[in-house]
Amino acid sequence: MIQRETVGKIVRSRESLIPEGPPALSLRKGEAEGGCGVIGVAASEKIPARHLLQALKQMRNRGNGKGGGIAAVGLLPEEFGVTREVLENDYLLTVACLDPRARPELERDFVEPSFQVDHVRLLPPNGEDLEPRPPEVFQYFVRVKPEVIEAFKKQNGLDGTVRIEDEIVYQNSYRLNRAFYASAGEKRAFVLSHGKNMFVVKMVGYGDDVIRCYKLEDLHAHVWIGHHRYPTKGKVWHPGGAHPFVGLHEALVHNGDFANYASICEYLAQRNIYPLFLTDTEVSVLVFDLFHRIYAYPLEYVIESLAPTTERDFTLLSEEKKQIYRLLQTAHIHGSPDGPWFFLIAQSAQPERAFRLIGITDTSMLRPQVFALQQGPVSIGFAASEKQAIDAVLESLALEDPRFWTHADRYWNARGGSHTDGGAFIFTIQADGNGSAGLVCTDKFSRPIAANTAQQSYCSDAPALRASLAWPDVAAPALFAWVREQLPGWDYEKLLAFLKGLAHSAEQDHSRRRALEVLTLLMDRRYRIGSMRRSSLLSLFDQSLARIVESVRQAPSEAYCFVSAGGPSPDPASAEQTVIIDARGFAPQGERSLAREIVRLYRWGFRKMIVAQAQGHRFIASGLGPGARGLRIDVYGSSGDYLASGIDGPEIFVHGDAQDQLAQIMKDGRLVVCGSVGQTFLYAGKGGEAFVLGSAAGRPLINAVGKPRVVINGTCLDYLAEAFMAGDPLEGGGFVILNGISFDDQGQITELDAPYPGNNLFSLASGGAIYIRDPQGRVSEEQLNGGEFAPLEERDWTVISPYLEENERLFGVPLARLLEVGGKILPPERVYRKVRPRVIAALQPEEAWTKIHE
Fold first, then answer.
1. pTM of full prediction above 0.85
2. Which domain holds residue 799?
3. Does residue 794 lie in a domain region?
4. pLDDT at 2
5. Do 551 and 419 fall within a single domain?
6. Number of domains comprising the chain
């Protein structure tokens, strides 16, 4: 770390930046609160910006068109007209000129006095139809003049042990912004970014508008961030109020809002740092820059200072960590954002010349986030608001480059402040000295996150398929069983031969149902796959499904018909006819959305629907109205938020992961998810059944009432069944079964380290129960807040065992395996524990008063 004396000198050098009079603070909300759409990508090979377009388009509901932006880190020198030496050693000062007439004055006062300019590049806007018109963007590749460095050192008593040029660039940009943008009056220009090997562009509009407006589609970078800004706290000055905001060598976007903006401004002011744009995102990156560049903290300490570890997680840290973290929290708690937020940071790490994508989750976990990693010939990592946005980038890449495929090897959510991984993940790209680069993913504690690269990924530029494969002519379950036995010994060529034959058989109407059932079982179930990789298999299964859908489009029948965006809606031939809906082309939401089309088809008389190739479509199966029993919808692809929300009777099967706000206010029906689910699953649910093969993120089943009955085979991050009000499960009320299991790379059941890792299990619940598989007794009393453990009685098992039997039928998770511990089958009461609302022995004051006066 930098010596304390040197830090003090740098802080004092900023005294000339102190504004006259008290700093302006605005606590007014510029707009109603809303979620932001963020996507971050880090790849071992530079990728073009166009691959972000579909992801940002699918998340437009998370913005309002009043501010969008992108950041790029790790650039190609030839695309900027400079040498590699210039790109790596010069600061890339990127300036937005709202008034082009300001440029000569700006250069005279803030470029020429301090910098040697090696190259200038203009980014003219191509948005004549956008209002207000996007600014002209000028990019200056600059070096700080030696005499300026010497004068700064002499004036502030600094030596060569710190990167003085960084501070000169930072202070110069501050003065420029104060003179041309942040001062009262007309806003003429402002600095977008000023770090090395990175730049930011933002404007009034959406993130994808920025890419198109400035013709960045073919520009390459190792790290990209895209953002739709939905303003929260602070006065919003467009376009300067849009994300990203910069420190020096990093750009930050954030989804969320925090309540202590004024407190953080005071904390920064004590260190002579004064925000100019009056928004919480700006102060976030200023704090990050302070900790990382000025204090020279390692990233772990920076993350801890921003998102302090608290409560039970703190007690589970090592004594060494506790000691360090106590000091950090004591020193910096007033600089820690307080509230729901998720930060994405693109960093050009100096002086090590690495590139990073950093995702940090706050401890309240009220903002959605998902991480992903794909490792193959090119390794690529993601952090985003929604999984479907990650899938959109992978699909775009896979269409152009055979080294990518459409599923990540790993997807996961972060639990902020966790003692296990810290709730933060860093994707680092470092050159290997041979002209190439590698990507490493680590958690807050520098522990690696990786896929099983011993299993081979599929590359679509492999030689043309030559093999043919004979397989038994049996019913779907038996054929799936046969394939499952063969897979451990197959390679991709044999698998493709089978899938080719399966798709070919589906051209005949009598074999379509079998082909779809087998393909669906291959997608949904877990099984041994030998040397192949599951993410590649899922990508190949998607391709096979697309071929079957195409065969229905070309040859509809009495059993199957086809619907696409803009096409006609056929009359159902019979109650048994299945309509296959190609989701591509339908809007994510609104009048022309897939959700509205499903409602129209239901009212038209269809009762069996297959949604194929979903691409972030929201509200699937919502709006059907009361009493929709008899309707079944199967969803394939990457569905969006609010799926099955408000349903009353239908069966919905999701063949893969689902996302946030799933099945909110569900009243009746059945939901089956053959993967994991996102935030606030079954919020305020009133009834029905739900089965989840994987895990839930944060806050599932909060405020649920009535009698929802749910099986989650994995776990959830925190706040499971908070304020649950679902009656007595032994008298027809609701409950949740949490199995605490996972699957390894060969599809075999494994035990999670903790069946429930959070601090708020069944907190403030007044009804219902949690049945948690916890044979080792790892869940403790301190994780409960209003709940208590109770013996599992025979009548409890009578209630829940039918749901575990159905869980076995749906997912192939044997009930006998769930009762197996250490190789032995144990009685249910030694495997499952019951959590019920705590029995209150004493009357509350208001109850006692009523009793006395009866």
1. yes
2. 545-837
3. yes
4. 63
5. no
6. 2
